[in-house]
Write a structure and sequence with these properties.
The chain has ten helices and 13 strands. By secondary structure, it is an alpha+beta fold.
Length: 476
Protein backbone atom coordinates (compact mmCIF):
# COMPACT_ATOMS: atom_id res chain seq x y z
CA UNK A 1 0.00 0.00 0.00
CA UNK A 2 1.29 3.42 -0.86
CA UNK A 3 2.34 5.68 1.96
CA UNK A 4 -0.43 8.15 2.73
CA UNK A 5 1.91 10.86 3.94
CA UNK A 6 2.04 13.67 1.45
CA UNK A 7 -1.05 12.42 -0.44
CA UNK A 8 -3.57 14.05 1.87
CA UNK A 9 -4.20 17.79 1.45
CA UNK A 10 -2.99 20.04 4.23
CA UNK A 11 -5.93 20.97 6.42
CA UNK A 12 -6.52 24.58 7.40
CA UNK A 13 -8.26 25.64 10.57
CA UNK A 14 -7.75 25.85 14.29
CA UNK A 15 -5.08 23.45 15.55
CA UNK A 16 -5.78 21.32 18.60
CA UNK A 17 -2.46 22.30 20.17
CA UNK A 18 -3.16 25.99 19.57
CA UNK A 19 -6.65 25.63 20.98
CA UNK A 20 -5.47 23.94 24.17
CA UNK A 21 -2.62 26.43 24.56
CA UNK A 22 -5.05 29.31 24.25
CA UNK A 23 -7.34 27.63 26.74
CA UNK A 24 -4.57 27.28 29.32
CA UNK A 25 -3.54 30.88 28.70
CA UNK A 26 -7.10 32.08 29.15
CA UNK A 27 -7.77 29.97 32.23
CA UNK A 28 -4.61 30.81 34.17
CA UNK A 29 -2.51 33.64 32.83
CA UNK A 30 -5.18 35.97 31.48
CA UNK A 31 -7.32 36.22 34.65
CA UNK A 32 -4.28 36.84 36.84
CA UNK A 33 -2.82 39.45 34.49
CA UNK A 34 -6.02 41.34 33.88
CA UNK A 35 -7.00 41.08 37.54
CA UNK A 36 -3.71 42.63 38.60
CA UNK A 37 -4.13 45.34 35.97
CA UNK A 38 -7.62 46.21 37.15
CA UNK A 39 -6.50 46.32 40.77
CA UNK A 40 -3.56 48.51 39.81
CA UNK A 41 -5.89 50.92 38.02
CA UNK A 42 -8.20 51.05 41.02
CA UNK A 43 -5.34 51.55 43.46
CA UNK A 44 -3.29 54.66 44.22
CA UNK A 45 -0.69 53.72 41.67
CA UNK A 46 1.88 51.90 43.87
CA UNK A 47 1.68 48.67 45.80
CA UNK A 48 2.27 49.19 49.53
CA UNK A 49 4.54 46.18 49.96
CA UNK A 50 8.09 47.45 50.81
CA UNK A 51 9.87 45.55 48.06
CA UNK A 52 7.36 46.74 45.46
CA UNK A 53 7.65 50.34 46.70
CA UNK A 54 11.45 50.17 46.49
CA UNK A 55 11.34 48.79 42.92
CA UNK A 56 8.94 51.55 41.91
CA UNK A 57 11.29 54.19 43.36
CA UNK A 58 14.24 52.84 41.41
CA UNK A 59 12.21 52.87 38.19
CA UNK A 60 11.38 56.52 38.77
CA UNK A 61 15.07 57.29 39.33
CA UNK A 62 15.89 55.91 35.87
CA UNK A 63 13.22 58.16 34.39
CA UNK A 64 14.43 61.26 36.28
CA UNK A 65 18.16 61.33 35.52
CA UNK A 66 20.72 59.96 33.07
CA UNK A 67 24.54 59.84 32.77
CA UNK A 68 25.96 63.06 31.38
CA UNK A 69 28.88 61.33 29.68
CA UNK A 70 31.43 63.08 31.92
CA UNK A 71 31.21 60.82 34.94
CA UNK A 72 28.21 62.55 36.45
CA UNK A 73 24.42 62.81 36.26
CA UNK A 74 22.00 65.20 34.64
CA UNK A 75 18.23 65.64 34.96
CA UNK A 76 15.81 64.73 32.18
CA UNK A 77 13.92 67.80 31.11
CA UNK A 78 10.60 66.06 30.54
CA UNK A 79 10.41 64.16 33.86
CA UNK A 80 7.83 64.87 36.55
CA UNK A 81 7.66 62.76 39.70
CA UNK A 82 4.37 61.04 40.55
CA UNK A 83 2.18 62.19 43.43
CA UNK A 84 3.37 59.51 45.82
CA UNK A 85 7.09 60.35 45.55
CA UNK A 86 9.50 63.18 46.36
CA UNK A 87 12.85 62.59 44.63
CA UNK A 88 16.18 64.40 45.19
CA UNK A 89 19.27 63.44 43.16
CA UNK A 90 22.84 64.69 43.75
CA UNK A 91 26.01 64.27 41.77
CA UNK A 92 29.27 62.76 43.06
CA UNK A 93 30.26 66.20 44.41
CA UNK A 94 27.07 66.27 46.54
CA UNK A 95 25.50 68.97 44.39
CA UNK A 96 21.77 68.72 43.67
CA UNK A 97 21.00 67.62 40.10
CA UNK A 98 17.26 67.07 40.39
CA UNK A 99 14.73 67.94 43.13
CA UNK A 100 10.94 67.96 43.57
CA UNK A 101 11.24 70.24 46.62
CA UNK A 102 10.72 73.89 45.71
CA UNK A 103 13.13 75.08 48.39
CA UNK A 104 15.94 72.97 46.92
CA UNK A 105 17.37 74.18 43.62
CA UNK A 106 19.78 72.49 41.24
CA UNK A 107 23.39 73.15 42.12
CA UNK A 108 22.85 73.57 45.85
CA UNK A 109 24.94 71.66 48.34
CA UNK A 110 23.87 68.42 49.99
CA UNK A 111 24.00 69.97 53.44
CA UNK A 112 20.59 71.58 52.98
CA UNK A 113 19.16 68.22 52.06
CA UNK A 114 20.70 66.61 55.10
CA UNK A 115 19.28 69.30 57.36
CA UNK A 116 15.85 68.57 55.98
CA UNK A 117 16.37 64.89 56.65
CA UNK A 118 17.50 65.32 60.23
CA UNK A 119 21.28 65.72 59.66
CA UNK A 120 21.60 62.04 58.68
CA UNK A 121 21.61 60.34 55.33
CA UNK A 122 19.81 57.36 56.79
CA UNK A 123 17.71 59.05 59.47
CA UNK A 124 13.95 59.52 59.36
CA UNK A 125 12.75 63.07 58.63
CA UNK A 126 12.02 65.13 61.72
CA UNK A 127 10.08 68.14 60.52
CA UNK A 128 9.96 67.93 56.71
CA UNK A 129 6.53 68.57 55.27
CA UNK A 130 5.91 68.55 51.56
CA UNK A 131 2.40 68.89 50.13
CA UNK A 132 1.10 68.91 53.67
CA UNK A 133 2.43 65.45 54.52
CA UNK A 134 5.36 64.13 56.47
CA UNK A 135 7.11 61.24 54.67
CA UNK A 136 7.66 58.18 56.83
CA UNK A 137 9.89 56.23 54.46
CA UNK A 138 13.18 57.46 53.02
CA UNK A 139 15.30 55.53 50.52
CA UNK A 140 18.94 56.65 50.18
CA UNK A 141 21.34 54.98 47.73
CA UNK A 142 24.34 55.75 45.58
CA UNK A 143 24.08 55.70 41.79
CA UNK A 144 26.80 53.82 39.92
CA UNK A 145 27.74 53.07 36.33
CA UNK A 146 30.26 50.30 35.63
CA UNK A 147 31.48 50.38 39.24
CA UNK A 148 32.03 54.19 39.20
CA UNK A 149 29.89 56.32 41.56
CA UNK A 150 27.96 59.01 39.69
CA UNK A 151 25.99 60.40 42.63
CA UNK A 152 23.24 59.66 45.17
CA UNK A 153 19.47 59.87 45.40
CA UNK A 154 17.01 60.52 48.24
CA UNK A 155 13.46 59.30 47.81
CA UNK A 156 10.64 60.17 50.24
CA UNK A 157 7.46 58.13 50.19
CA UNK A 158 4.27 59.04 52.02
CA UNK A 159 2.53 56.96 54.66
CA UNK A 160 -0.38 54.70 53.80
CA UNK A 161 -3.88 56.08 54.35
CA UNK A 162 -5.92 53.13 55.58
CA UNK A 163 -9.19 54.75 54.60
CA UNK A 164 -7.97 55.40 51.09
CA UNK A 165 -6.50 51.91 50.88
CA UNK A 166 -9.76 50.32 51.93
CA UNK A 167 -11.48 52.13 49.09
CA UNK A 168 -8.95 51.72 46.36
CA UNK A 169 -7.48 48.33 47.28
CA UNK A 170 -10.65 46.49 48.26
CA UNK A 171 -9.77 42.78 48.12
CA UNK A 172 -13.33 41.91 47.17
CA UNK A 173 -12.91 43.89 43.98
CA UNK A 174 -9.88 41.81 43.07
CA UNK A 175 -11.69 38.56 43.88
CA UNK A 176 -14.73 39.61 41.89
CA UNK A 177 -12.68 40.47 38.80
CA UNK A 178 -10.70 37.25 39.10
CA UNK A 179 -13.90 35.23 39.49
CA UNK A 180 -15.35 36.82 36.34
CA UNK A 181 -12.33 35.85 34.28
CA UNK A 182 -12.24 32.37 35.82
CA UNK A 183 -15.91 31.92 34.91
CA UNK A 184 -15.21 33.01 31.33
CA UNK A 185 -12.28 30.60 31.13
CA UNK A 186 -14.42 27.77 32.55
CA UNK A 187 -17.15 28.42 29.99
CA UNK A 188 -14.51 28.45 27.24
CA UNK A 189 -13.08 25.16 28.49
CA UNK A 190 -16.56 23.65 28.59
CA UNK A 191 -17.15 24.77 24.99
CA UNK A 192 -13.87 23.29 23.81
CA UNK A 193 -14.57 20.05 25.67
CA UNK A 194 -18.00 19.83 24.08
CA UNK A 195 -16.52 20.46 20.64
CA UNK A 196 -13.90 17.75 21.14
CA UNK A 197 -16.48 15.33 22.55
CA UNK A 198 -18.77 15.76 19.53
CA UNK A 199 -15.91 15.24 17.10
CA UNK A 200 -14.62 12.15 18.92
CA UNK A 201 -18.13 10.67 19.08
CA UNK A 202 -18.56 11.16 15.34
CA UNK A 203 -15.23 9.46 14.73
CA UNK A 204 -16.27 6.63 17.03
CA UNK A 205 -19.52 6.13 15.11
CA UNK A 206 -17.61 6.14 11.82
CA UNK A 207 -15.15 3.54 13.18
CA UNK A 208 -18.05 1.35 14.32
CA UNK A 209 -19.61 1.52 10.85
CA UNK A 210 -16.30 0.54 9.22
CA UNK A 211 -15.80 -2.31 11.72
CA UNK A 212 -19.34 -3.58 11.02
CA UNK A 213 -18.59 -3.75 7.29
CA UNK A 214 -20.18 -0.51 6.08
CA UNK A 215 -17.53 0.75 3.67
CA UNK A 216 -19.83 3.04 1.70
CA UNK A 217 -20.54 5.77 4.28
CA UNK A 218 -18.08 8.60 3.90
CA UNK A 219 -16.13 9.86 6.92
CA UNK A 220 -16.10 13.65 6.84
CA UNK A 221 -15.58 16.11 9.71
CA UNK A 222 -14.66 19.78 9.86
CA UNK A 223 -13.61 22.11 12.65
CA UNK A 224 -10.37 21.35 14.49
CA UNK A 225 -7.55 20.71 12.02
CA UNK A 226 -6.16 17.54 13.64
CA UNK A 227 -9.63 15.98 14.00
CA UNK A 228 -10.45 16.78 10.37
CA UNK A 229 -7.12 15.29 9.26
CA UNK A 230 -7.81 12.12 11.28
CA UNK A 231 -11.27 11.88 9.71
CA UNK A 232 -9.79 12.18 6.22
CA UNK A 233 -7.22 9.49 7.04
CA UNK A 234 -10.02 7.20 8.23
CA UNK A 235 -11.93 7.88 5.01
CA UNK A 236 -8.84 6.98 2.98
CA UNK A 237 -8.59 3.75 4.99
CA UNK A 238 -12.29 3.08 4.27
CA UNK A 239 -11.70 3.52 0.53
CA UNK A 240 -8.67 1.22 0.65
CA UNK A 241 -10.63 -1.46 2.51
CA UNK A 242 -13.49 -1.15 0.02
CA UNK A 243 -11.14 -1.49 -2.94
CA UNK A 244 -9.47 -4.48 -1.30
CA UNK A 245 -12.87 -6.06 -0.64
CA UNK A 246 -13.91 -5.53 -4.26
CA UNK A 247 -10.64 -6.98 -5.52
CA UNK A 248 -11.08 -10.02 -3.32
CA UNK A 249 -14.64 -10.49 -4.55
CA UNK A 250 -13.47 -10.33 -8.16
CA UNK A 251 -10.61 -12.66 -7.33
CA UNK A 252 -12.88 -15.24 -5.69
CA UNK A 253 -15.14 -15.18 -8.71
CA UNK A 254 -12.14 -15.63 -11.02
CA UNK A 255 -10.64 -18.38 -8.86
CA UNK A 256 -13.95 -20.21 -8.72
CA UNK A 257 -14.06 -20.16 -12.51
CA UNK A 258 -10.39 -21.11 -12.90
CA UNK A 259 -10.66 -24.06 -10.51
CA UNK A 260 -14.02 -25.21 -11.78
CA UNK A 261 -12.88 -25.34 -15.42
CA UNK A 262 -10.10 -27.98 -15.05
CA UNK A 263 -12.15 -29.89 -12.48
CA UNK A 264 -15.12 -30.03 -14.86
CA UNK A 265 -12.84 -31.19 -17.66
CA UNK A 266 -11.26 -33.89 -15.49
CA UNK A 267 -14.70 -35.04 -14.35
CA UNK A 268 -15.91 -35.25 -17.96
CA UNK A 269 -13.02 -37.43 -19.05
CA UNK A 270 -13.46 -39.69 -16.01
CA UNK A 271 -17.12 -40.17 -16.87
CA UNK A 272 -16.13 -40.96 -20.44
CA UNK A 273 -13.69 -43.60 -19.22
CA UNK A 274 -16.32 -44.99 -16.85
CA UNK A 275 -18.90 -45.19 -19.67
CA UNK A 276 -16.45 -47.15 -21.81
CA UNK A 277 -15.85 -44.45 -24.39
CA UNK A 278 -12.07 -44.99 -24.06
CA UNK A 279 -12.02 -48.72 -24.72
CA UNK A 280 -8.93 -48.77 -26.89
CA UNK A 281 -5.50 -48.09 -25.29
CA UNK A 282 -4.75 -45.08 -27.55
CA UNK A 283 -7.87 -43.17 -26.55
CA UNK A 284 -7.40 -44.04 -22.91
CA UNK A 285 -3.78 -42.86 -23.04
CA UNK A 286 -4.88 -39.61 -24.65
CA UNK A 287 -7.59 -39.06 -22.01
CA UNK A 288 -5.12 -39.74 -19.20
CA UNK A 289 -2.61 -37.30 -20.70
CA UNK A 290 -5.27 -34.58 -20.92
CA UNK A 291 -6.33 -35.20 -17.31
CA UNK A 292 -2.72 -35.00 -16.20
CA UNK A 293 -2.35 -31.63 -17.94
CA UNK A 294 -5.52 -30.36 -16.28
CA UNK A 295 -4.30 -31.66 -12.93
CA UNK A 296 -1.01 -29.78 -13.40
CA UNK A 297 -2.94 -26.57 -14.17
CA UNK A 298 -5.08 -27.11 -11.10
CA UNK A 299 -2.02 -27.75 -8.93
CA UNK A 300 -0.32 -24.60 -10.26
CA UNK A 301 -3.31 -22.43 -9.41
CA UNK A 302 -3.70 -23.91 -5.94
CA UNK A 303 0.02 -23.41 -5.29
CA UNK A 304 -0.38 -19.77 -6.32
CA UNK A 305 -3.19 -19.36 -3.81
CA UNK A 306 -1.09 -20.92 -1.07
CA UNK A 307 1.85 -18.62 -1.79
CA UNK A 308 -0.45 -15.61 -1.87
CA UNK A 309 -1.85 -16.55 1.54
CA UNK A 310 1.66 -16.88 2.95
CA UNK A 311 2.60 -13.45 1.60
CA UNK A 312 -0.54 -11.81 2.95
CA UNK A 313 -0.44 -13.33 6.46
CA UNK A 314 3.32 -13.02 6.97
CA UNK A 315 3.72 -16.73 7.69
CA UNK A 316 6.77 -16.91 5.46
CA UNK A 317 10.17 -16.19 6.93
CA UNK A 318 13.27 -15.13 5.05
CA UNK A 319 16.35 -17.24 5.64
CA UNK A 320 19.10 -15.16 4.09
CA UNK A 321 22.37 -16.88 3.30
CA UNK A 322 25.30 -15.78 1.11
CA UNK A 323 24.41 -16.40 -2.54
CA UNK A 324 26.76 -16.10 -5.51
CA UNK A 325 24.53 -14.36 -8.01
CA UNK A 326 26.40 -15.40 -11.20
CA UNK A 327 26.15 -19.20 -10.71
CA UNK A 328 22.56 -18.80 -9.48
CA UNK A 329 21.51 -16.99 -12.67
CA UNK A 330 23.39 -19.53 -14.83
CA UNK A 331 21.42 -22.40 -13.27
CA UNK A 332 18.16 -20.55 -13.84
CA UNK A 333 19.11 -19.79 -17.46
CA UNK A 334 19.75 -23.50 -18.22
CA UNK A 335 16.36 -24.45 -16.74
CA UNK A 336 14.55 -21.73 -18.70
CA UNK A 337 16.28 -22.78 -21.95
CA UNK A 338 14.94 -26.33 -21.55
CA UNK A 339 11.42 -25.06 -20.86
CA UNK A 340 11.58 -22.74 -23.89
CA UNK A 341 12.36 -25.72 -26.14
CA UNK A 342 9.28 -27.54 -24.89
CA UNK A 343 7.17 -24.44 -25.62
CA UNK A 344 8.66 -23.97 -29.09
CA UNK A 345 10.37 -20.69 -28.21
CA UNK A 346 13.90 -19.34 -28.60
CA UNK A 347 15.73 -18.44 -25.42
CA UNK A 348 18.82 -16.25 -25.37
CA UNK A 349 20.76 -15.57 -22.18
CA UNK A 350 23.76 -13.40 -21.34
CA UNK A 351 24.51 -13.20 -17.65
CA UNK A 352 28.26 -12.62 -17.88
CA UNK A 353 27.78 -9.15 -16.38
CA UNK A 354 26.81 -10.63 -13.01
CA UNK A 355 30.50 -11.29 -12.24
CA UNK A 356 31.39 -12.55 -8.77
CA UNK A 357 28.73 -10.61 -6.88
CA UNK A 358 27.72 -12.26 -3.59
CA UNK A 359 24.65 -11.14 -1.67
CA UNK A 360 22.58 -12.41 1.27
CA UNK A 361 19.42 -13.97 -0.17
CA UNK A 362 16.84 -16.75 0.13
CA UNK A 363 17.58 -18.94 -2.90
CA UNK A 364 14.27 -20.85 -2.86
CA UNK A 365 12.19 -17.68 -2.89
CA UNK A 366 14.30 -16.10 -5.61
CA UNK A 367 13.88 -19.23 -7.75
CA UNK A 368 10.13 -18.85 -7.48
CA UNK A 369 10.27 -15.14 -8.34
CA UNK A 370 12.41 -15.65 -11.46
CA UNK A 371 10.23 -18.60 -12.53
CA UNK A 372 7.13 -16.40 -12.32
CA UNK A 373 8.74 -13.63 -14.38
CA UNK A 374 10.14 -15.90 -17.11
CA UNK A 375 6.95 -18.00 -17.26
CA UNK A 376 5.04 -14.77 -17.75
CA UNK A 377 7.36 -13.92 -20.67
CA UNK A 378 6.81 -17.40 -22.17
CA UNK A 379 3.01 -17.09 -21.92
CA UNK A 380 2.90 -13.74 -23.70
CA UNK A 381 5.40 -14.53 -26.46
CA UNK A 382 4.01 -15.68 -29.83
CA UNK A 383 4.88 -19.15 -31.17
CA UNK A 384 8.49 -19.18 -32.30
CA UNK A 385 9.18 -15.93 -30.46
CA UNK A 386 12.32 -15.10 -28.52
CA UNK A 387 12.74 -14.52 -24.78
CA UNK A 388 15.95 -12.85 -23.61
CA UNK A 389 17.50 -13.17 -20.15
CA UNK A 390 20.46 -10.88 -19.44
CA UNK A 391 22.41 -9.32 -16.57
CA UNK A 392 24.86 -6.42 -16.51
CA UNK A 393 25.74 -3.04 -15.04
CA UNK A 394 23.95 -0.78 -17.53
CA UNK A 395 22.41 1.83 -15.23
CA UNK A 396 24.14 5.18 -15.76
CA UNK A 397 22.39 6.71 -12.75
CA UNK A 398 23.64 3.95 -10.46
CA UNK A 399 26.64 2.20 -12.08
CA UNK A 400 27.19 -0.03 -9.03
CA UNK A 401 23.74 -1.63 -9.42
CA UNK A 402 23.31 -4.89 -11.34
CA UNK A 403 20.36 -4.98 -13.77
CA UNK A 404 18.68 -8.25 -14.72
CA UNK A 405 16.41 -7.91 -17.79
CA UNK A 406 13.73 -10.31 -19.01
CA UNK A 407 12.44 -9.44 -22.52
CA UNK A 408 9.66 -11.00 -24.55
CA UNK A 409 8.15 -10.41 -28.00
CA UNK A 410 4.55 -10.19 -26.89
CA UNK A 411 2.17 -7.29 -27.22
CA UNK A 412 3.80 -5.30 -24.42
CA UNK A 413 2.12 -3.62 -21.47
CA UNK A 414 0.47 -0.19 -21.92
CA UNK A 415 1.86 2.52 -19.58
CA UNK A 416 -1.42 2.84 -17.57
CA UNK A 417 -1.23 -0.87 -16.68
CA UNK A 418 2.47 -1.10 -15.79
CA UNK A 419 1.95 -0.50 -12.10
CA UNK A 420 -1.29 -2.48 -11.97
CA UNK A 421 0.32 -5.71 -13.22
CA UNK A 422 2.08 -6.06 -9.86
CA UNK A 423 -1.17 -5.77 -7.88
CA UNK A 424 -2.71 -9.00 -6.55
CA UNK A 425 -5.58 -10.48 -8.59
CA UNK A 426 -4.91 -8.22 -11.58
CA UNK A 427 -4.94 -10.20 -14.81
CA UNK A 428 -4.91 -7.47 -17.43
CA UNK A 429 -7.31 -6.85 -20.26
CA UNK A 430 -7.94 -8.66 -23.49
CA UNK A 431 -7.44 -12.20 -24.60
CA UNK A 432 -3.82 -12.28 -23.52
CA UNK A 433 -4.77 -12.11 -19.86
CA UNK A 434 -3.94 -15.48 -18.28
CA UNK A 435 -3.34 -17.03 -14.85
CA UNK A 436 -4.84 -16.00 -11.52
CA UNK A 437 -3.14 -12.62 -11.21
CA UNK A 438 -0.72 -13.61 -8.43
CA UNK A 439 2.53 -14.47 -10.19
CA UNK A 440 3.87 -10.93 -10.66
CA UNK A 441 2.62 -9.86 -7.23
CA UNK A 442 4.53 -12.70 -5.55
CA UNK A 443 7.62 -12.02 -7.66
CA UNK A 444 7.71 -8.34 -6.67
CA UNK A 445 7.09 -9.16 -2.99
CA UNK A 446 10.06 -11.54 -2.95
CA UNK A 447 12.34 -9.15 -4.84
CA UNK A 448 11.52 -6.19 -2.61
CA UNK A 449 12.00 -8.30 0.52
CA UNK A 450 15.65 -8.64 -0.56
CA UNK A 451 16.07 -4.88 -0.85
CA UNK A 452 15.93 -5.03 -4.65
CA UNK A 453 13.51 -3.31 -7.02
CA UNK A 454 11.56 -4.24 -10.13
CA UNK A 455 9.95 -2.24 -12.90
CA UNK A 456 8.37 -2.89 -16.29
CA UNK A 457 8.92 -1.10 -19.59
CA UNK A 458 9.28 -1.72 -23.32
CA UNK A 459 11.74 -4.23 -24.77
CA UNK A 460 13.71 -3.43 -27.97
CA UNK A 461 11.63 -6.06 -29.80
CA UNK A 462 8.38 -4.29 -28.95
CA UNK A 463 7.25 -6.57 -26.14
CA UNK A 464 7.58 -6.11 -22.39
CA UNK A 465 10.81 -5.81 -20.41
CA UNK A 466 10.94 -6.59 -16.69
CA UNK A 467 14.04 -5.10 -15.06
CA UNK A 468 15.31 -6.15 -11.63
CA UNK A 469 17.68 -3.62 -10.06
CA UNK A 470 20.05 -5.19 -7.53
CA UNK A 471 22.13 -2.77 -5.43
CA UNK A 472 25.61 -4.09 -4.73
CA UNK A 473 25.09 -3.66 -0.96
CA UNK A 474 21.46 -4.83 -0.80
CA UNK A 475 20.41 -6.15 2.61
CA UNK A 476 23.72 -5.21 4.29
Amino acid sequence: MKCLKGLLPRRRGIGLRSLLTALVFGAIILPATLGSLVVSLLSSGIDEHPSIRFSAVRRELGRAVEPDGKGGLRARSDYKAPEWLILIVTDRNDRIVYSDVKSLSAGEDIDKVLSLLGQSRFGAPSSLKVKGKEPTCVYVETVELGGEILGSYYALVWPVDLRSLSKTRNPYTFLFVLACFALAATLGAAGVSAMLARSVMKLERAAILIASGDLETRVQLGGIREIASLAETMDTMRKTLREDRDRRARFLAAVSHDLRTPLTSIGGYLEAVEDGLASDPGTLSRYVSIMQDKTAVLEERIQGLIEFARMETGEWRLGFRPLWLGPFLERRAREFAEEAKLRGLDFHSDISGAGDLSLPADEALLCRAFENLVSNAFKHSPPGGTVCFSAGRKDDASPSALLVDIDDEGGGIPPPERELVFEPFYRGNGAAAQGNGLGLYIARSVIRSHGWDIEVGDSPSGGARFTIRIPERAND
